[in-house]
Every structure is written in structure tokens, then in C-alpha cells.
Amino acid sequence: MMYLKGEKMHIFYSIVLGIIGGLVGVAIFGLSGYMISLSFFEPPFFLIILIIAMIKMFGLTKGTAKYMERLLSHDATFKMIGRLRASYFKQSVNSAEDTHSVRYIQKLTSYFDDIEDYYIRIIYPYIVAVFISLILTVLSLLIDPKLLFILLASVLVMLLLMPLVISSISGKLYDERNSAEDTLFTQLYHYIHDFTNLFVVKEDTKVNQNIKKTYKKITKNENKEAALDAVIDTVSLLIQLGVIILIIVLFSGDYPLLIPMLILLLMSFFELAIPVIKPASKYKAVKARVEAVSDTGESVTEDKHQSLTLSNMTFRYPSTKRDVLTNINIDIKPGEKHALIGSSGSGKTTLLNQLIKQSDAGIMPQHLDFYNATVEENITMFNHFESEESEMKNLLEQFELDHFNPEDYITSAEYLSLGEKKRMHLIRMYIENKNIWILDEPTASLNTRLRGKIWEEIFKKDTVIAATHDLSHLEQFDYVHYLENGTITESSSVTNALQQDGPVKEAYKRYRDAL
Amino acid sequence: MKLNLNLKYAVLYSIIAIISVVFYIAFGHHLSRILESIVMNTGLEISEPLIYMSAFFVLFILTDKLYNLFTGTIANKSIEQKANQLIDSIDVKTQRESERMINALLVHLEAYRPYETSFVPTIIKTAVKVTLIIASLFFIDGFAASILLFTAPFIPLYYVLVGLQTQEESVKQATRFDNIGTLFLNLIRGKDTVKNTNSKETVIKRLEADNKGFVKETMHILKYAFQSTMMLEFITILGIGLVALEVALRIIIFQNISFYTAFFVLLLAPEFYNALKVLGTEFHNGKLAMGSFEKAEKIINKPKMNTSYRGKTESFAAEAESLSVGHGDKILLNNSDFTFSKTGLTAITGESGAGKTTLLRTLLGLHEPVSGQLNVLTKDIGYVSDQVYFSDTTIYDYVSANNHSEDEVHGILNKLKLSASIDNLEQGIYTPIVNHDIPLSGGEIVRLKMARVLINKPEIIIMDEPTEFLDAETEQLVMKYLTELKETSAIIAVIHRRQLLSIADSHYVLDNGELKRGDAV
Questions:
Q1: SS3 B455
Q2: Residue B133 lies in domain
Q3: DSSP letter at A367?
Q4: With an 8 Å Cβ cutoff, is A288 touching chain B?
Q5: ipTM of the complex
Q6: Is pLDDT of B163 > 70?
């Protein structure tokens, strides 16, 4: 299809082909109706043969038009979705939104389904149906102006009035469905992650019942949608019946020969128009949602400078009322290695995130990202970094990941254990080869031997800042900071901290006391 | 392909479908009569057939929509049952694959829904339609019926020959499309790493290249798929054309057919072919939907937790008889007999990964042992786990679990020296915990978790690393409280630090599948 450039032309041609296919399809029925009437009045035989040949020709045209239309519209859709994805990704890389939640991803999936629906199932068939209706309405003038009125009235009712009237109902059903799914998701998520607790306090059955209650709402919503479909079909078919009766009553005197043709024509036209009504009624609701999600949120411009300094920094998340970090002062000079310790929830990750924002360093975040691609692509970020296969193989072996080959395909992030992710991400950072490393719990979920290997690699770096619970290698750091409730309560060289009484010494003592 | 429908409903569906199609045929019959009278001017009074025609058409609409509504309701109910089975299969292990579960319920089951709401009813309706149309045409015009019967097999035959050939390829492409979609979602999810490694441009190029390659290959395959649809269209039009020719020949040359018959045949023939075409496309959709269901089915068919291993004992907190506990092939406790006393603190230690937490979960009934018997004193067991998860709640709701008064909550918070920091909060014990955001320190969170369990004064208290994250002062406080508590309750605790062993009454070490007496007590 070299001669069609860009999706717009694709869509234009698909609409034209859709209209041709639809009209020809309707014409086939009309012609066969006309043929029978004619046959009984001793027409020249070649005329009948001609009509039958035309029916076949039309059939071939319809098939070909449909074939080309489908090719073009699919091609356009796939290209459009690909383009939308790339541009959505471009925007979201710079947005501040946390995209790790499963719900976010799920909403995004249904958003892209909605976009597909919006063009392919809502707008496109509607345009085709409207054009076919208009052409048929105009052609009806050839027979009788009364016919034009009948057709125009039924087209207006079906393609304009009904979608408008139903719009509020189907919009409500659409919103109802989305909100039920939101509730279901939240309940399910809590149930799964809090299961142990709920089981122990014997609340699990109650929560289970609540989730089922929410699911009932989805069933009800589906049933209501089905009922709405039935109502739309019934009303449209009744209109169809009314039109048939009107034609018989009004025109049987004037044009008896044309009646079978008109009736077959109309029945085939209604068959084409009825399925468009309900999707068209959803136009507003879907459009609103597509527009709401396509705004990916504020993008943050980050000022990257090489310094790893925070002075008097106080931080709170936009949605909370409480400072997560208060009056933080930290200054990391090139060549220094800093450890950040403190209990869970004390603000270590938040502090690291502030440093990550302003520095060009190798990062091991708390949440490690892997993609459904090969091991090699994951490690080199789709060949953004260069690495020889032999080097990669050596690294995999070094970190006891040699059960993976660089060309192995990782189907999903669940495929890797937490410990494997830590090590594979460290290989990624090794190949990236930055001078500064910022690490969040680099040795969590690893055994003692692997912890040793990881620390060894970390201490080869010039400048390091690591948040950790694992104090086994604390003595190899230069400085240590103790964080409690969002404030640094102790900050000194490791040697000093381990000599004077304070939270660091206390924590270290407790770490050594472990069995 | 199985229909996933029990016989009772299959029969009921068929009956409604038969009634509905008969009404449609009756409508066609009267319409043909009316038109015959109009075109041939036979002088038949048309007002009576007009009423019949209208009545049958209305009846057809009603029964047809009744069919849709009825089958839809049954199908949605059946989907809900499957959803409930999925919800019931959630247990303590689900957490490790929570996305799989959530996708099964919200994505795969939804992708399967049309199979029951649309595919199954359409198959039954179409089968009825095809049979009844051919049967009624045999009464009216045997030749036409023979043409239909002769050409009809070409449609399924064509599907078998060409459809199946491209189907495998198109399923493969659908998987590939899914993979590209998943990669896009993964990249959005993992955008931080893309940003941290400055690889945005590379990644976008990759996404675009992927999509380009996909579009090219898919269009190639779709061409064949669409060509096969086009061929079907041609077969159909050939069939309809043959019928039209037959009708025309009989009218003009043989003059042995009435207008009524001619029109009736030409009204029903396209319905017949359309039904066959629908059958073909639905078959394809049905196959795809079934694939989605298989993903959900895997979770549903997971064996249910068996509780027959649990018995009751009066003399101990817990008593195991040749108990074996494991994960898959890995045995963590091998054929072990032990008893834990009704009061006092039982300490369990062992290397990380030895299975201590799993043993605790077995005691709780959260983990099914491989074999053996476990008798417990009571079902009233409290558990302070090593994990922190808060559903959206408030501090009061969390501690009281809707079973305790405000005074009781204050009492337990006091005992664990939590009152001061919680009263400091703007909303006190009614401070909401949303999105896991709780304005307390790590040590305070540990005590809050304890408060929730200890407020119930359970007879057995199970704890996983109870003093982790506590500073020395609070640790003393918690130990004092536990010393008091163990006079009346059994405390079974996995501990990592020597400090706690000093108040233990018995000590076990879990090592290499054995639960040995420890030397600390």
C-alpha cells in the first residue's frame, strides 16, 4: 500500500470503501426483490440474466471493498496505537506520577482499549452508517418524496435521537462499571496483601463476601447493558416494522412492482444501522475518559548537577500533611562512601530519591524494573549500553546467575526472584559504568555469600551512598548517617560513630547480637 | 470445542430459539403473501395478513430479545460463579503472584465473558436457524433448498482448509501484539529506570521499531485471513446468485412457481448464508476467548487447602505427630514430633531460609503440611507477623478490628507505651492510614501490630521476630510486657536476637529439617 501515506488517508479510504461495501450490500437485496417482481411480467430473458449478473458483480464488489477496507482500517489502527504508545511513553518518562501500581497499569490498558473502541467501534462505523443513510435517503427521491420523509424520519430517530436519549443511560452504566472495577481492584489488592492478618483475626470470610458483593455489581451492570441492548433492538425493529407497513399501505397502489425491492432494501439497511446505535450513545462518556487519561500529569523538570548535597531540606508528599523528611543536611564529596541506616519507614528511601533527582549516578532504586525482553536487552537497556556477550556471560557467572543466557527471554518480572533482580540490576549498573552509585538496600533477600560479592563490587566504586539494613560491611564505609522519623539523628565518620554511644553504635551492637 | 453449558440450558436455549425462528419464518410467510397480492394483483384482502405479519414480527422481536436477555443472564451468572471461585482460591500464597490473580479476575475472565454471553447462544441460535430454514424451504421449493444444502458445506470446508491454516499464525501474531503491549506497559511501569539510565531515546526507537515490524508481518497474515473472509463472501454470493437464477428460470421458463414462493426463498436464503458465516467468525472468537479462560482456570483448579491434619489437644498449646512441612520439593521439617507448652515463651531460632516462618504459618493453619498431624489447644491464635501491611483504615479500626471499645484500645496502647506518640497526632487514634502512609516510626509500627493482637488476649500468641526495629528502651518494655503475658498464655516466637532468649522458657533450633532442643534454656 505504498500509495497511501499516513493514517489519515487510510481512514479516509476505509470510510469510502465501507460506504461502497454497505451500499452495494443493500443494493443486492433491492435488486433481487426487483428481479422477482419483474420476472412475472414476461420481461426479455436477457434482462433477468443481466440483473442476476449484476447481483453477482455487486457481491464481488462488496467482498472486495470489505477486504480492502479491513486491511486499511487494521493497518491504520495498529499504526495509530503504536504511535500513541510511543508518544504516551515520551510524556510519562518525565512525569512525577508513580507508575508502579498494578491499578495504574490496568487503567492504562483499558484506556488504550477505549481509544481503540473510540475510533474503531464508535466513530468509524457511525460515519459509514450516516453516509449510507444519507445516500439512500437522497436516492429515495427518485421514487417518491414521501419515501424520502419516511426514510429521513427513521434515520433521524435511529442515528440521532436514540443515541442522544440513551447517551445518559449508557454513560451512567459505563461510569458505574468503571467505579465497580475500581472498588473491586482495591478490595482485592488489600485482601491479597493483608490475607495473613485477616485470616488470623478471622476477618477473611467477611472480606471475601464483600468482594463477592462488589463482583455482583459487575454482573448487574452486565445485565443492565444486555437489557439496554434489548430495548434498543426492540425499538429499532419496531421502527423497521412501522416503515414496512407504511410502505405497503402508502405505495402498494402507486408502485406495486417496487414494493418487494423496497422492503428487502430497508431490511438490509436496518441490519446495518442498528448495531451503530449503542456504541454511538457511548461517545461522550468514552471521549471524556480518553481525554482525562491522556493527560499524564505534571512533568517535573529536574536540575541535574553533579553535587550530592542536601542542605536544610524538608520534604512532604503532595497528598500528605506530614513532613517525611525534616531539616536534612547531607554532603557527599567525590571519593566518599556513605551509609544511610535507620529503621523501616524512617525516610531512607525518600532521602535517596531526593539525591537521585539531582545527580547523574548509577542507581539501584527500591523497586527494580525489568521488561519482557531478553536478558541482554534488560541489562543493556535495549542496547543503550554496549557490552560484549562474553563480558555479560562472565558477569552472570560471577553473580551466580549463569542459569540465564544473555539471549534468554524474560517473560515477566515475576519470573525473577527478588535476589536475582538485585544481582541482575547490579550487572546493569556495572555495564553502565558511572562513577557514583546510589543504592537502596543492595543486599536485601540475598544470602551471606552473595552479600559479600555485592558489597565487594560496590566498594570498587569511587563514590557510594547506600541505604541498608545489612550492617555486615559498615566498617568499610567512610561515613554513616542514622535516620529516625525523617531526621538525621547521628551523622559522623564510621570510626567515630562506632566509638561514641549513639544510635549507630546501638544499631551496630544489635546487628552483631543477632543469632 | 466444548460449550461450557449444561444440558438443561442447552435444551431451554434451543426451545426459545426454535420459537423465535418459527415466528420469523411465519413473518416471512405473511410478508410474501402480502407482496404476492400487491405485485400479482390477486385481489387478496391484505389487511388481515398485514396484521398477522405485524403480530409475528413483534413476537419474533420479543422472543429473540428474550433469548438474548435470558442467555445473557445465565451467562453472567456463570461468569460470576467463576469469579467467586477465583476469589475463594485466594490464600496466603496468592501474595507472591498477586498480579496474576488480579489479571485473572479483571482481564482474563472479562476476555472470556463473550464466550458465554455471545458465542454459546449464537452457536445454538444459528444451528437452529440453519436447520429450520432449510427444513421450511424443502416444503416450499425443493430445488432452492437443494442448492442451499449443496453450497452450504463449502463454507465450513473453506474454514477448515484456509481458516485453520492462518489461525495458528494469527494466534501467534496476537500473542506478539500482546507482548508489544506488555513491553509498553512494562516500560511505563519501569520508566524510572529508563530515566535513571538516560535510555529514553533508545527505548522509544525500540518501541517504534517493534510496532513497525509487527504491523508489517501482521498485515501480511491478516491479508490471508481477510482473503478467506472475502472468499466466503464470494461463496455466499454464488449461492444466493444460484438461488436467484433458479427462481428466475422457474418463473420465466418453466412458469411453475408462484410469486409467494419466489419471494419467500429470496428472503430466507441470505439469512441462511449469513448464519453460516457468523458461525465461522464466532468459532474463531470463541477459540481466542477460550485461551483467556484457560489462564484463569489454572488458578481455579489449584488444589484447595486441606484442614484434616488439624486436631485438638487439651494438654499443650500445640502438639505435632510426625509432622512434615515443606515448599514444593523442599522439605523444611521432616517427620517431626514436638510439643509446645500451654504457658511460657517458646523460642525458635535457625538460619535464614530454614523454614521458621513457614513453621509458624503451619501452626496458624495458613500453610498445609506435607504429612502428619498437628493438634492445637484452641483456634484462638494471635499472630504478629514479620510483615507490615495496612489496608486503608484508621489506627482505632486497625487495633480494635471492630471488636473493642475506645477504652480498651487506649489501654493496650498505654501498656505498649504508644499513647504519647499517637495522642500527638492531629486526629489521635482516629488518624487514617491510607496508602500505607502511617505517621509512626518503625519501632512504633511494630508495637501497633502487637497491640492489635494482644488486645484480644489470645491463648496462643505467635510472633515472628517481635523485637526487630525496636530500640533498646522499647525492647525492654516489650520484653517486660511479654514476661507478664506468658504467665497465662503460650507465646511461640521466632527470634533473631540473643536478648529475647533470656526470657524464653524453652528453646528450639530449626536446622536441616529437624526441630532440635536448643542450648539457650
A1: coil
A2: 1-141
A3: S
A4: no
A5: 0.85
A6: no
